[in-house]
Every structure is written in C-alpha cells, then in structure tokens.
Amino acid sequence: MKLFLRIVLKIILIIILIIGGIILYRAIDSNNSPDLRSWHKILPSPEPLLNKNIKSIDDFIKIDNKYVRDNYDKVKSDTLALYQRYNPHSSMSSFIDKDNLNASFILDPGEDSTKGVILLTHGLSDSPFYMRNLAHYFYSKGFYVFALRLPGHGTLPSGLLDVKWQDWYKAEKWAAEKIADVAKERNKGIFFMGGFSTGGALTLHYIYDVVNHPKLPMPQKIFLFAPAIGVDNMAFVADWHKSLSWLPYFKKFAWIDIIPEIDPAKYSSFTKNAGKQIYLLCHENKKEVKKIVKEKRKNTLPAIFAVDSWVDATVNAKDLVRLLQQIGTSKDELILYDINRRYQQFAKKNIASHSPFEIKFSASNSPKYYVISNRKDSLGRVLDTVGVFVAGLGIQGKNIYPGINYFWPAKYYAISHISIPIAPSNKMYGRNSTLGKLQIHGENNVLVLTANDIDRVRFNPFYNLMTKELNDFL
After folding, report:
1. Residue 391 contacts residue 368 (beta carbons within 8 Å)
2. What is the torsional sign of CA 44, 49, 55, 59?
3. How many helices (H) and strands (E) does the chain have?
4. Distance of alpha carbon 456 from alpha carbon 412, whole angstroms
5. In principle, which of 52, 154, 157, 262 could form an S-S bond with 102, CB 3.0–4.6 Å?
6. In this structure, what DSSP letter does residue 316 have?
7. pLDDT tens for residues 405-448?
8. Domain that holds residue 16
9. pLDDT of 77-92, one tens digit each?
10. SS3 for 96?
11. Which residues are within 8 A (CB) of 31 and not within 5 positions of it... i.e. 6 or more apart?
C-alpha cells in the first residue's frame, strides 16, 4: 500500500512539474511579444454602470460618451502611427467627424412613431459600433434602439484584464429593464433583444434568467448573430497566467495577443482573462439550458432568430445548432452561411466534405432552417450565385428566392465571424473602407499582424439577404 502511494505521489509530482514547466516556458516566451504600450498598462476609469446609480438610458448615454472620451484622452497622441486608433488625426481614430464610435447610443424614431424597442449588445473586444448597421435596420422599421457598451470595452484593451462576465451581465440586465420601461412609457408592448457573439450569450443568459425570475421583463423575440454558445475549453486554463503575470517581468503573460491597435472600434490586443470569462458565461448558459430542457419549459422562451457562418472560427456554429435542437420550436429560425463551394478544392478536408445540409431537426415543432449556399446549373455545376435553401431534413431543399440572384464577391471563399452584422456600406469595415480593402504583400515572418488578421473578411456580402429574412421574422 505504501509503495502504491509513493508511486501515485511521484506521478502527481511529475505532472505538477511538467505543468509548471510549461507555464514557466510560456511565460518566458511571452516576452518575445511586442512591447506593452500605455493602453495595455493604464487601466480605464471605474465603469459607470457598475459604480453609479444611473436612472435612465438618456442619462447613461451622456455619461458613457464622456467616459469613453476621457479614457481615450489618457493615451491619445499625435505622434502615433498613421493606422492607430489612439492617434486623433489617424484615419483609424475612434473619433471620426465627432462620431464617438465606441460609446453606447440610441436611435429614437420619436414617441408617436415608435413601433417597439430593441436592445442590441456587441461582442467580446468589440464596441457598440459593431451593431450600428443592425441598429439602423431596426430603426428604419420604427424601433427605438439602444446599443449598449459592455464594461471593459470601447476604451483601452487593459479594460479586459480583470473584468468579470457578471459585470457584463449586470449591465445587460440594467439595459433590458430600462428599455422595457421605454416600451411601457410609449404604450408599446413590443420588446426585443439582439446580440452579436458574446452579446448573443448575454441575451440568452437574460432570457434564461427571466424563466427563473418571471418578474423580469421577457422580450417577445431575440436575435442572435453568430452567438457564443460554446468556446474552446482551453479558454478555461488560460487563467493560469495569473500565477506569474503579477510579476513585472511576466506582465505580457496576461495577454494572448499584443497587436497594434489599428481597429477604431475593436481591440486588436486580447487578454487571457477575456477568454476565461466568455468560457464561464457559456458554461453557465449550458447549465441553464439543461435545467430548462429537464423541466420542459422551452415553450416559455421567446422566438429566436439565429444566424452564423458554417465555418465560424471564433464560435462553433454546431453548438448553435445543438442549442436549437434542444430548445428550438416552430416559432424559431436558423440561417447558416455555407462556404463558397466554387473554392471547395482549397478547403480543408473536414470542411469540404461536410455540409450544413447534413443537419437534421425533428420533423415536428422544429425551427425553420435555411442554408445560404451556391446554386447549381442544370448539369449540377456549382455557380457563383447563391440561394436561400430549405434545410433541416439532412438534404438540400428548394430555393425560396428562385427569381433573385445574389453573387459571391470575386475571390471570397467564406463568411467570417466578425463580418456577420456588418453591411457592405459600413464606413469602417465595408467593401470600400480602409480596413475592408486592407491588402498588403511581402515576405513571411515580417509582420506582427498575421495573414489571418489581414485576409479575414470584415463585412457580410449577403447582409441584405439576411435582413430580407429579418423582415419576414419581424
């Protein structure tokens, strides 16, 4: 028995030494990353929604605009590079023509013209600007729109060093209750919520919370754009950096990426804590889903509209499918963007050989499911045009818009995660924007930015097709 215990203890000691060695090696290696700049080291001021009793959305909008500006001023400099969000004279500045790209905002059609209200929430490391196109879409339909900035976002990347997902949810819950009050004040009962990526996870967490606490206002419909349902389990162990990153020599170990801040409305640098927090939020949501399924309460949930890319590299689209297979009903709708099958020969085997048409839903009470994919000619040859095809039974059904032709842009092979809510006309990410057209060429191992950062499509070429489906769902 003693010999067995000695062996077990030796194995445990070896495992601890191996893990410790890996952590130490990664910590030392992190020092090869670019130097930390002021926006990595200076922390934003305490978040208004977490530290003040703010009574209305209008009050918050004023406070939040000043808050974002004040934190920007902490690090802004005229001497920074041309492509730099903290250079006020850069084309990538976070303030373009006095437009504060990162602050919360409202779009108000006027009390007499209001048909409903909607809360929109951005994704991890993003800002409310990511919801700008969708906000204008809902506004055009007569909706009062509130786009919320989550704590830790829209100011300095260091804001994601210590933030907790509970901080994000506290802001989300406050915003949901306040915008529901606006609906009551204007004698309109229509209350919707929508979220992109992490914003989608927070939207889901809110409706799960309402199921358990019915006194909270429940939206009638929710809109999920590439929602974070599940993320890589490695995000959980990323928190190990705290074992060393408190030491000055290992400060960089708290970061996954330290990249030049060229994006005016999204952090380029990314903390390990941020990855940990979205993992914990998704894990919490999965527990709530199990409870709802077990107690057979999915019919108490609002109608769900969800859209994602089949090859989303940030969140797993299959997790979204599984969620709707668990809690989806006939009032829900799912849309997946397939890859451009004209480039199928260049795709990895596991992607090229699988199709979103393989997904099956139960025949009764299942969500409407559509796939946006290439059309084919009479000989079965893949075309550049796309259609919206009925799916859900494991096969490709009919094209629901046979008389309308949408085209894949030349040399585009897939829809990216970050492009889902962005219209081609978007001034910062669209087809004719600086970032949308960013293409630079040279030699390997020269740039801090990788080919992935540069090549990733930043706008959704089928945005109008998505809003066409939104029209029907509304």
Report:
1. no
2. positive
3. 13, 14
4. 10
5. 154
6. -
7. 889 988 899 999 999 999 999 999 999 888 877 766 666 666 66
8. 1-32
9. 988 888 899 999 998 9
10. strand
11. 249, 250, 252
